[in-house]
Design brief:
Shape: globular
Largest sheet: none
Number of domains: 1
Radius of gyration: 10 Å
Order of helices and strands: HHHH
Number of strands: 0
Number of helices: 4
Length: 64
């Protein structure tokens, strides 16, 4: 599986490019509204989410 989504990508840009990722952000309770203007890494850290698990789930959805 190739990585389509990287930790330095902006959440809102990821959702625009891969709309199906919205459900992953919700499942992980990542703030994709107010935190949507920040990188996945920064928002995951702020929200206390495991970055590697989040990226794996996002890439699985984006590549399906």
């Amino acid at each position: 599986m190739s990585k389509l989504i990287a930790k330095d990508m902006i959440i809102n840009e990821v959702i625009r490019k891969f709309p199906k990722t919205m459900k992953v952000f919700k499942e992980f309770k990542v703030d994709s509204c107010c935190g949507g203007g920040f990188s996945i890494e920064k928002t995951a850290k702020t929200d206390g989410v495991n970055l590697e698990d989040l990226l794996k789930a996002l890439n699985e959805v984006a590549s399906s």
